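Anyone have tokens for Extracellular repeat, HAF family? Sequence:
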Amino acid sequence: MRRRAFIAAIGLAGTVLAAPGVATADTCEWVVSKVAVPDGYDPRSTKVEGTDSHGDYAGTSLRPGENTNDLIVWTGGKPRVVHELRHLRSLSMAGENSSGTVLVDGTIVAEGRRAVVLYSASGTTDLAAPNGYRLTGATAINERGDVLGHGERIADGRQVGILWSTIAVAPLIIDLTTGTPQGLDDDGTVLLRGREGKPGALWKSGQVTLLADEGRYTYAEAIRGGRVVGYQIGDRWPESQALLWDRGGNVRHVDGGGTAFAVNASGLITGERSTMVGPASVWRDTTFLGELPYPDGVTFVSELFVVGDDNSLFSHASDYGPVRWTCS
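Reply: yep, here.
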């Protein structure tokens, strides 16, 4: 079964290589810190789920006294609740790009529908479903502002992917025979996660490229810069192997990687070392760089990782709250 929120063992601080093209140094030390939350909000229900890679970031937190999330944006490390989206129930965040545009979805109860919304400092934009379809959620946003979501055909309820491309005149419908919408690269390539343990495929302009399958139960997690990261399950719990696919669907093993959950444009990968419950760690492409330090008192973090192009990392500790790593 699909594992969510696997724990990781204690990581040790260390000096590791920085991602290429970031700053001038070729080494850095990972510094961990706690992310501030808005007054009255519980850190344990607060998660950072995107960054603009310029020092600001965004996420969600459970609204005090209610069973719904609010969108939270951090500017200069200070959190702010986005009241403009409080009409959305069951709000979830799907990503943020470097322009600071945040992608969310949520239910408009009065209208009985799911909405996909872009939020930025300039306001909000509701994305419309193509004629004959209804929206069921949002998946990803890329650097040029393309948005990936999912929906269903009204006539028969058939599930589809929906791509709002900045270079297309109308939203594109994606057939989901080979998988479900999972990620979106900056060139418009869509990652489709496979079903029943299959890795899935890459979709671009209607052309499908299958991801290489090594015959084990596999989860494709994220795509960026032409790289797809994920992992496969071993013979016994908690054995696993982190994987890296290229644009052609060819696969390589990530050195010492148990899982891989996120990747940035320069190939910095986050995941868990050795097994599904190994220490939170970082790689560049398939090369192991080091384990991440944890705050005092924290012994594990969830699999949720955000990797900025400025090498800022975010995750979450269940009894602690959101965690940030910076490369100094």
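The CA atoms of residues 58 and 73 lie 4 Å apart.
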